[in-house]
């Protein structure tokens, strides 16, 4: 087994969160009712954990994810209307080509790649 880490993301609406992450390329690999495991088959893994009442407000959710991918533009096309920063994806001062969206529970999700 590879040495890797998986985010466990609390969400107050599992179906909405699942639908959101499917748009980014994830698929459900295991469903345990209030706990769903998602992956894309190429290295992304994510666990969704039903957490009623979380977050207290969307704006107060401190969680974030960074998804590295080669074809940033292809993923951006799947969620174009959800992109937070106008004109994204673009190259950032920290040398990534990226864009950001927010999941239904307010998790900030950045999708990008490192620019040489």
Automatic annotation (TrEMBL):
Transmembrane segments: none annotated. SUPFAM superfamilies: Glyoxalase/Bleomycin resistance protein/Dihydroxybiphenyl dioxygenase. InterPro entries: Glyas_Bleomycin-R_OHBP_Dase, Glyas_Fos-R_dOase_dom, VOC_core. Residues 1-114 form the VOC domain. PROSITE patterns: VOC. This is VOC family protein. It comes from Paenibacillus wenxiniae.
